[in-house]
Amino acid sequence: QVQLVESGGGLVQAGGSLRLSCAASGSIFSINRMGWYRQAPGKQRELVATITSGGARYADSVKGRFTISRDNAKNTVYLQMNSLEPEDTAVYYCNAYLMSGTIRWGDYWGQGTQVTVSS
Hints:
By secondary structure, the chain is mainly β. About 0% of the residues lie in helices and about 65% in strands. Strands 2, 4, 5, 6, 9, 10 and 11 form a seven-stranded mixed beta sheet that branches.
């Protein structure tokens, strides 16, 4: 069994900062990619940022404001969000593409954490 548990969401004023964390646990052999997606009310889920051994990738809307990082020893990914805007309000989901104990690669998702930015 693999679990992704997110933390760090909340309510913040525009211009403020939040840091999200996501820890993967369970029967994990290897993690290729970790990342963050978000879904605002009435909209489709969209990529925010991903990170692999080759580097990080960001949505244009968050470049220069958000930073993704990863602690491989802890199977944890972080998202530092600065200069937050009301448009960043969404449920943020952690994602990992990993090989589990069944020796199969697959996508796993966290339960989501709410980020609300007030104007």
